[in-house]
Amino acid sequence: MQPVVETLSGLERRLELSVLLADVETAVQAELKRAARTAKAPGFRPGKVPMAMLERTHAPGIRYDAINDKVGQAFEKAIEAAGLRIAGAPKLEPKTEGTPEGTLAFFATFEVYPAVTVPDLSGLKIKRAVTTVGEAEVQRTVDILRKQRAEYAARDGRAAQDDDRVTLDFAGTIDGVPFEGGKADAFPFVLGQGRMLPEFEAAARGMKAGESKVFPLAFPADYGGKDVAGKTAEFTINVKEVAEPVLPVIDAEFAKSLGQPEGDVEKLLADIRGNIEREVKARTLARTKTSVMDALIGAVSFDVPKALVDSECQSRVQAARAELTQRGVPNADKMPIPADAFTAEAERRVRLGLLVSELVQQAQLQAKPEQVRARIEEFAGNYEKPAEVVSYYLSDRARRAEVEGIVLEDNVVQHALAKAQVEDEQVPFDQIMGTA
User: Which residues form the PPIase FKBP-type domain (predicted)?
Assistant: First the structure.
C-alpha cells in the first residue's frame, strides 16, 4: 500500500509509521538468546545465566534498540515506496490515539530535497577577469623581492621616510601612568609596513637621528591589549638611528639567493614570470568563478532544507572556533558563537551546492581522471620537486577528492562561460595580487 505523505509546509513532510509489538518481541527474544550464549553474572558460568535474569537486566535496552530498528526499517521502506529524497534525520513522535492494540505507531516528520531547475545559461551575464602579465609586472615583483632582502645603512641627517628602518626609544603613559608594553629601548621597525599604529608611524616620519617628540596616540577600541584599548596615551620617542634601505643588485648572487642554483639571472626572471602567470591565472579564475556562481544563484529561487542549513551553520561555527584557536584566543572552544549569524551565508551555500549538483548531472560535468591529474601537475609546478607533489596527491583518496572538487567547479565555470553572455573585465595587476 502506498504510504500517505502529508505536506506540512515548504519542504517539510510527515507520514505515519507502525510497528507490530509481536515483531519487536520476536527480535528481542532472538537477541536475548544470542546474548545468553556469552552472558556473565556473579555465581554463574559464562553462558549459563538464567533467561529470567537476562530478561530483567538486558531486555529493556534490547527492546529499545529493536523498536528503533523496526521503526527505521519501516521509515526506509515508506520513503522508498514514496520515491522521496530525505534531507537530514526524521523527527519521531509517538501516536497515542487511534492505534490498534498490539501496535506501536509514530509520526515521522522530515524534510525532502527540493526540485531544482537549472536556469537558461544563455541568459546569464558573467564577467571574466583578465589580467595582463608583462615586463612591468615582472619588474614590480623583482623589486618586491629586492626590498624583502634589503640591507640598511645608517644615514646621519636623513629624515625618516617610508621603507627606512628607524631605531628609537619610546615610552608611553596613560593619565601619567606607564602601562605594560608601553616602553622599549632601541626598538627597530621599518616605516610604511604597518607594524606600528598609524599615529606612531606618522609621528616618526620625517624625524632625524637625535631628535625627540611627544605626541598623543588613541588606541583603537578593538586593540589587542585590553588594558589600553579605547584609551589615549601620550608617547615620547627619541630617534637613535635612521637607516636607508640598500637593495641588492640583480646579479648571480641575487639569483642564487632566490633558489636559482646556477646564478642565471635570465632563468630567474623566466621562473619569476612563470610563477606570476600561474598565480594570476589562479586568481583571475577564482574571480571569474565568483561571477559565475553569483549569476547562477541570482537566477534561481527555491526552498532549501533547514537541516542542511543548520548543518552548514554548525560547520561555520566550528571553523570560526578553529580560527580563533589558531590565533591564540583563550577558551575559543567554549566561546559562544551564535549559529544564526551564519544563516544567510549557509542558505546561499546550500542552494548553490544543490544547483551546481543538478547542473553537473544534467550536463555531465563530472571530473575526469585525466583532468584531475593535469590539475595536480599544474599545481605541482609551484614546488621544487613536482613529481613528489603529484605522488602525494595521487596516492591518497581524500587528497585526490579535494582536487576533483576543484576540477568539477572549473568544469561548471567553463560550461557556463561557453553558454552565457560574457564580458571581459580588465583587472589591474596590483588589484588581482592584493598589493594595490
Answer: 163-245
SS3 170: strand
What's the angle, vertex CA 390, arms to CA 385 and CA 393, rounded to 5?
Answer: 130
Q: Name every residue whose Cβ is closer than 8 Å to that of residue 18 and which is 6 or more positions away in sequence.
A: 74, 99, 103, 104, 105, 106
Angle between the N-to-C axes of helices 306-326 and 343-363, in degrees from 0 to 180, rounded to the nearest 10: 120
What are 123's strand-pairing partners?
none
Helix and strand tally (H, E) in the chain? Answer: 12, 11
pLDDT digits (tens, 9 = 90+) for 320-373: 888 888 888 788 788 888 888 999 999 999 999 999 999 999 999 999 999 999
CA atoms within 13 A on the CB side of 350: 24
Closest CA to 357 of 408, 312, 313, 404: 408
> CATH: 2.60.40.1940, 2.130.10.10, 1.10.3120.10, 3.40.50.1820. Which one for 121-133+254-432?
1.10.3120.10
pTM over 0.90: no
Provide DSSP, 253-267: HHHHHTT-TT--HHH
